[in-house]
Amino acid sequence: MFLNNYIKINDKQYTILEKIGEGSSGKVYKGQYLNQFYAIKQQEYLGEGEYEFYQHLNQPKESQKFRNLIQIYDVVKIDRFIYIVMELGESSLYDETVNNKIDKTNIRFIMQQIGSGIKQLHEDLNLAHRDLKPENILVQTIKSEITQETQQIFKLCDFGYVKNINNLKTKAIGTPYYIAPELLNNSNDLYNKKCDIWSFGQLIYELISGSLMFQGDTIQKIQNQILTITDGDIQNLIDKLLLEREYKELLKNMLKRNVKDRYDINQVLNCLKPKSRSQSRNTSVESKNYQNPAQISIRTTFQFQGQIIQKQQCPLMENKFNQNQCQFIQKTNNEQKRFPINNNFVPNDQKKLDF
Ligand SMILES: Nc1ncnc2c1ncn2[C@@H]1O[C@H](COP(=O)(O)OP(=O)(O)O)[C@@H](O)[C@H]1O
Ligand SMILES: [Mg+2]
């Protein structure tokens, strides 16, 4: 909590206006400094990859070029919390989807935008996101000064699980509905950044169909479905969508179980290049309303280990699940390497000020 509703970060005193979001790792507030609004996330830990990511963005020129990643302005540690000052998004893709506010006829543009954000992470920064889902994609509306037309821009946020792509080993990390099968099996193989393509495919399937591909009221049930579904089953589900053939083919290639067969981000973006002016915008897609927002508790990011089975203290799950089948490790757990942020990057002489 903030005392007197303000916080001083690097000599800027932000007024805290309201809480705008909360996930497994932190709380996000809308803040104001002078006449500008910001999002300020308060969390207890920084992930190893997250730290690396913020260091990249610490170079002002660098952060400019990542148009589809939410911009980060400041990361500081004050007392026991880390504060991340970011560009403010208007809403999340999740909110827009459940409120049926997304113009699905513009699916090519939406996929290009999210795909560009993934490419900026995968190719420019050499990182995988590992927790792509509608909640972690923010939507902003911009107005062209020339034509006065408004346009939605999609930006990736929540970099708490980003990781260097050459070194992906920690399995079973992510959010149940979107997690790729290779992160759930028991092999010790390294996996790669294509886990994000699977999640991307899942969220597009959800957007178009109005429901999740995997249904279930427990994590275990969803996990079993992901582990047992075949490429053929997935193709049948995609074929049922009212969607142009080229997008169906693309989705099938994004949702291949075998990582080697699955498209990488460049292949995805190549398929989305506009072929002609008329094709660059509207597409016929089914206009079903969103049906199943799914249990909020299962939509939460978590890290668990394949089939193992030992309940840990977890306030979120306690009431909802009486399953002993899932080892839920919160982000604050030591299992995942966490470390205090580096003094060069984050001044640790910040005094505890106004909260
Ligand atoms: N920059 C932002 N602008 C607006 N809303 C945001 C911003 N960052 C996060 N949010 C909202 O807060 C929620 C939680 O933030 P997130 O970074 O995803 O935290 P967690 O790691 O706990 O999931 C997001 O799903 C989104 O709705
Ligand atoms: Mg999140």
TrEMBL record:
<dbReference type="GO" id="GO:0004674">
    <property type="term" value="F:protein serine/threonine kinase activity"/>
</dbReference>
<dbReference type="GO" id="GO:0005634">
    <property type="term" value="C:nucleus"/>
</dbReference>
<dbReference type="Pfam" id="PF00069">
    <property type="entry name" value="Pkinase"/>
</dbReference>
<keyword id="KW-0547">Nucleotide-binding</keyword>
<dbReference type="InterPro" id="IPR008271">
    <property type="entry name" value="Ser/Thr_kinase_AS"/>
</dbReference>
<dbReference type="GO" id="GO:0005737">
    <property type="term" value="C:cytoplasm"/>
</dbReference>
<comment type="similarity">
    <text>Belongs to the protein kinase superfamily.</text>
</comment>
<keyword id="KW-0808">Transferase</keyword>
<dbReference type="InterPro" id="IPR017441">
    <property type="entry name" value="Protein_kinase_ATP_BS"/>
</dbReference>
<keyword id="KW-0418">Kinase</keyword>
<dbReference type="GO" id="GO:0005524">
    <property type="term" value="F:ATP binding"/>
</dbReference>
<keyword id="KW-0723">Serine/threonine-protein kinase</keyword>
<dbReference type="InterPro" id="IPR000719">
    <property type="entry name" value="Prot_kinase_dom"/>
</dbReference>
<dbReference type="GO" id="GO:0044773">
    <property type="term" value="P:mitotic DNA damage checkpoint signaling"/>
</dbReference>
<feature type="binding site">
    <location>
        <position position="41"/>
    </location>
    <ligand>
        <name>ATP</name>
    </ligand>
</feature>
<keyword id="KW-0067">ATP-binding</keyword>
<feature type="domain" description="Protein kinase">
    <location>
        <begin position="14"/>
        <end position="276"/>
    </location>
</feature>
<protein>
    <recommendedName>
        <fullName>Protein kinase domain-containing protein</fullName>
    </recommendedName>
</protein>
